[in-house]
Write a structure and sequence with these properties.
The protein has 240 residues and is mostly beta strands. It is 15% helix and 37% strand. It folds into 2 domains: 4-137, Trypsin-like serine proteases (Thrombin, subunit H, Beta Barrel); 143-236, Roll (Pdz3 Domain). The chain has helices spanning 124-137, 154-160, 178-182, 201-209, and strands at 4-9, 14-18, 39-44, 52-63, 78-81, 93-95, 101-109, 118-123, 143-144, 147-151, 168-173, 189-193, 196-197, 216-223, 226-233, 235-236. The relative contact order is 0.15.
Length: 240
């Protein structure tokens, strides 16, 4: 079945498609997060095998894939499942025992990395929110601070003379962006957002998912061996 792409949000990897069909049953989206241990069913076309169904359980919530922030497509705040997800499952439904869509398959960690049944999905509430925005305006809003975050490593900590083992190092600051306006500098280490610890770049990005453009966020920043609080007014992510 062919379909036309109506709009795309590259930050969350969600798109709205229009298919010229009138005989489809509307799916029910469960916007509350499923419980860990609940039945999980994945539908998709792995490796081209259409309408494949695999099953398992919900293995975890609020998962992040380490290192994904550096790729430009951060994978954060995801549902983890052991139902088999393979190439071709992306965009397919993650369904609960009542037939409700609880997520949309997005990624998996391959066996070559030493993983066994590690699949991840975007929560249905996030999919619905982004899809509604795409249908209304063709774009989705995302809080933007204007920095390139990196996870603090022992090597970077040594270079910065920082006595910490975790945190978010500011690698770059966008000129005239929200962070630059607030006084954030390259080399700063962000240790918390609104009082919640940020141990990695993925933690930082996940924290911003709960913030709307126009909101103020309080960043706990380590600079020159001293902790300070810097308030930043976030904006909508500029078009790329």
């Amino acid at each position: 079945m062919s379909a036309n792409v109506r709009a795309v949000d590259r930050v969350t990897d969600v798109a709205v498609l229009h298919a010229d069909r009138t005989d489809l049953t509307a799916a029910t989206f469960e916007t509350a997060l499923p419980e860990v241990g609940a039945l999980a069913v994945v539908v998709g076309s792995p490796l081209g095998f259409e309408a494949t169904v695999t099953s398992g359980i919900i293995s975890g919530l609020h998962r992040q894939i380490p290192g994904s922030a550096s790729t430009g497509a951060p994978l954060v705040d995801l549902i983890q499942t052991d139902a088999a997800i393979s190439p071709g499952n992306s965009g397919g439904a993650l369904i609960d025992g009542q037939g409700r869509v609880v997520g949309m398959s997005q990624a998996y960690i391959p066996p070559s990395a030493g993983a066994v049944a590690l699949g991840f999905a975007i929560p249905a509430a996030d999919v619905v929110d982004v899809a509604d925005q795409l249908l209304a305006s063709g774009t989705a809003q995302h809080a933007y601070v204007g920095i390139q975050p990196g996870t603090l490593t022992p090597q970077i900590a040594e270079q910065l003379a920082v006595d910490r083992t975790d945190g978010v190092v500011v690698l770059e600051v966008v000129p005239l962006g929200p962070a630059a306006t607030a006084g954030i500098r390259p080399g700063d280490v962000i240790t918390a957002v609104n009082g919640h610890d940020t141990e990695s770049a993925e933690d930082f990005i996940a924290a911003l998912r709960a913030v709307d453009p126009g909101d103020r966020v309080d960043l706990t920043v380590l600079r020159g061996g001293k902790i300070q609080q810097i308030s930043v007014t976030v904006t909508d992510r500029p078009a790329s």
